[in-house]
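User: Second chain of the day. Same drill as before.
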Amino acid sequence: MPLHVPVWVKNQKEAEKKGYDFSEGSRVMERLLQASPTVPGAYLYQLFVRKWSKLMELNPYFAKGRIAEAISKLIEILEIDPECPLTAFQLGYCFRVTGELEKSESFYRQALRMAPEAGWIYSNLGRTYRVMGDKAKAVGVFWKALELLPGDQFVLEQLVELGELFIVPKPDSSEALFVKRPDYERKMKEAVEKETDPVSLMGLGWKLLQDRLVDLASQSFQKVLENDKQNSDALLGLGTSHLEAGRYKEADQILTDYLDENPQSVTGHLNLFKVYLAENEEELAWQELQTAVLLDPNRLDVLRQLYFLFLEADRRDEGMEWIEHLIDDVPASFGPLLVKAWCLNEADQWEEAEEALKMALQRAPHNEEALLFYTAELGRREKTDELIQVILNEPEPRSLSLTINLVLAYTRTGRLAEAKKILTEFLNRKGLPLEDQQKAKALLSEIEKED
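Assistant: Same format as last time:
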């Protein structure tokens, strides 16, 4: 793309405020080339005019999720202009969606060679690395993206999820600070060392596990057990910490002891399943997973593990049979129906998936997991009015995730005033978690830019 997109002089102030309109820029380029074919930058303008109409033809493919079909058309555009960072970027996105991750990485890298200061390319490359499971590379490119896009909410959230940043309250304020991992870890280490109250230590331990600071979590649970060797919650926490740290022998022993005293613990059986799976004890793993499923047929993390286990063994049909049996055997359960819908949707059987989702919501009205899945799919299929109605039928107060889905639906239909009103009302709630505040404020700021 040209470094500067021409605009009509009368629109200059509006362009500077809202950003340059490439469609308008293309029209200006055509007029400019007609009037002065040798104007400086003419070669770039000619390339842009030739490829712009083709780029616009791609919009319906992206809007309808026909990503694989867009690839050949993008390659045609790249043949017109091999040095087009936008096209290389879009190919990087397409190949990520289709699961061709090495190609995705290659095209994002190609785009960065041509536009090395484009932070949004780094952030998308980071998403590819996350799908590839390469945490180190993902962290590196997200830090680069943040350097180029200071304060970008998506990039900040990715670094939080990767355990590189932590959200902490700003002293004497409702605002939040993003703290780097080494600083946060040092602060939490001091807290564990100073704390003596067992209840506070338990809370610290579970928070540290959530923050993926597993060694500090172990220390916290150990301190509880030093004074109360029979504290079953501390045993579960310590066993889980060893599991997360990859210390499977220690996790096996502690979780087994815990389950001897707490045989009805779904979490205990699920974690012991993960231990046995890591140790290639497949028969023992299967026994633990079955127990967990039968104890709570609505635990979605357990049901997903069940289905993935069948998938890895190339026994998808058998896994679906298991889910169907649960649907019939436990008529009050919604979880198996939700997993069934997820599996059917993955196999491009949306009508059957939607039927399962509606049945899940009949069994468990207002269930957030089902509603989030349902509304996200309605949005992806451009059934915006239906999506809005589903969420509006839900009682207040809505969760952040449902609020975001509703706001995005309104913005897609140009109803920005309603979107802003919903977010403003959400932010006025008392006791709103800091992380929810951050996300809602960032989204409201984006909508205000569009308005």
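Confidence is low (pLDDT under 50) at residues 1-12, 15-21.

User: Great, on to the next one.
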